[in-house]
Amino acid sequence: MSVGLLKPTLCLTFDNLGEAAEVGAGARGAEGIGSHPTATVVVPAILDGLRSRGLAATFFVEGLNAEIYPELLRRIDAEGHEVAYHAWAHEQWGELDPDAQEENLARGLEAFDRLGLALSGIRPPGGLLGPGGTELVRRAGLEYSSPAGKGAGAVRGQDGDLALLPFQWRHVDAVCVLPTMAAVRERMTGSPQPIEPAAFLAFIDSGLGALTEGGGFASIVLHPFMREWFGEARLDALLDRVGSARENGLRVAPCREVAAQVLADAEAFEEGTTLDPTSWSG
How far apart are CA 123 and CA 169, in angstroms? Predict the structure, then answer.
């Protein structure tokens, strides 16, 4: 069986929003939330930057945000971007048993549905699918999952087909500083030491060129809470580079659009993904 091929394709994605991860980790209670700078300042600025460049992105956000920042989520959707699922409060997906995953996903999908947002996909926090695997995601009616791995692919099953649109850890901004990602940094740069923002930008820039020339699929993963580390000017530069790569033939699209293409020829993509067992939690 031949593996399906995509023209050079990039999904520009943003993970996490507001206080959800802090609430999920028990670092703060549910009171006094609703004014987190990532939701009030950073994401609106990102949306402005995307609009000025004509770029469409996918925002993987926790379900709790449907209750805290409904208008921001509606704005993301109204401006042509995709809202997708990132657990209820950033629970590490791979450590949840199947029942907990199912309950978590059902709760989140219902919360987004109340906003009039029908979700197509999930990115499991931590990068691992866990014991529920792809079967649980398919049964929930989603079209794709974005775990850690490489290569766009598809999983066939009685409950329907599921596209896999993985991300590689080396394309994640937070990997540059997370202590548990030292081995990934060593593979990227030859050293386990934290990576400077300028070096990450250069790495992404080089990767965009290789993707445009060599074809295939990749996903850049940026976190709004990392903007202070990365810097506003570098984020603007990264968006400019994505825009330039698009002018040179790179397809830049939300994950749901790429998933639709994969599922249209699911048999050809059945062997397209290699999952990565590495998790940000070590």
Answer: 13
Nearest-angstrom CA–CA distance, 122 and 61: 9
CA–CA–CA angle 258, 165, 55 (5° rounding): 50
Read off the pLDDT of residues 107-159 as tens digits, 9 standing for 90 and up.
Answer: 999 999 999 999 999 999 999 999 999 999 999 999 999 999 999 999 998 87
- Both tokens assigned to 281: 């939690």
Q: Domains of the chain by range and CATH?
A: 9-274 (3.20.20.370)
Question: First vs last Cα of the chain: how many Å apart?
Answer: 35
The pTM score is 0.96
Residue whose structure tokens are 């249209």: 264
| Integer CA distances (angstroms), 247 to 14, 62, 171, 210, in order | 22, 32, 21, 15
Q: Which of 175, 170, 247 is nearest to 8 (CA)?
A: 247
Q: What is the DSSP string of 19-50?
A: THHHHHTTSS-STT-S--HIIIIIHHHHHHHH
